[in-house]
Amino acid sequence: MKNANRLMMFMILLLAPPTVFQAQTQQAGQETPKPAIPNFLELSPRIGTGGQPTEDGIKLIAGKGYKIIINIRSGSEPFDIAAEEKQALQLGLRYYMVPFVAQEPSEEQALAFNALMSALKDNKVFVHCGSGNRVGSLMMIYLALEQGMAPDKAEQEAKKIGLRSPDLLDFAKRVIAGHKK
């Protein structure tokens, strides 16, 4: 009887959707480990994007040959800017902040980001926010205006990066339309 119960439990787990199993393991006190870099994407050999990297994520960035981190989170968000910058500098990376607030995106911030990315064009750069959403918006603008990518292709790339906010998508489209050469 014990073996029959085990077999039945195995079959239930095998056939259950992954979300059911995940919920059961989380209820048992096990959490899914956080990735070192959420939504990490190597957009090109020179540009990487993602969400907030952990300490191991910053080490990974350095190990992959990135030379610069651009953090677009604002100082009012709950994370330790000073610790991130210190670790980046200790690993030989340059560190820039270009705060970009999702609820109040500004064209000035987007164009400042473009100018910085253009100035760093000969370097391997990693750009992050909290999740990849804001990075997607700014990279969409950068790809269309500075790299000459078609706006619809830039939008596809932005969604791969992590853009999911309709408001940030509309913002990026407006900036591109207003500055397209």
Helix content: 40-55%
The count of helical stretches stands at 8
Strand order of the largest sheet: 1-2-5-3-4
Report the end-to-end length measured between terminal Cα atoms: 75 Å
Mean pLDDT across the residues is 86
| Uncertain regions spanning at least 5 consecutive residues | 1-27
Question: What would you give as the CATH superfamily of the largest domain?
Answer: Protein tyrosine phosphatase superfamily
Cα shape: globular
How do the strands and helices of this protein lay out in sequence?
Blueprint: H1 2-15, H2 18-27, E1 41-42, E2 47-50, H3 55-63, E3 68-71, H4 81-90, E4 94-97, H5 107-119, E5 125-128, H6 133-145, H7 151-161, H8 166-179
Helix pairs in contact: 5-6, 6-7, 6-8
Detailed description of the structure:
There is one protein chain. It is built from 8 helices and 5 strands. The chain is an alpha/beta fold. The protein folds into 2 domains: 32 residues; 145 residues, Protein-Tyrosine Phosphatase, Chain A (Alpha-Beta Complex), CATH 3.90.190. Strands 1-2-5-3-4 form a 5-stranded mixed β-sheet, with helices on both faces. α5 packs across α6, α6 packs antiparallel against α7 and α6 packs parallel to α8. The longest helix is centred in the first third of the chain and has 14 residues. The radius of gyration is 20 Å and the shape is globular.
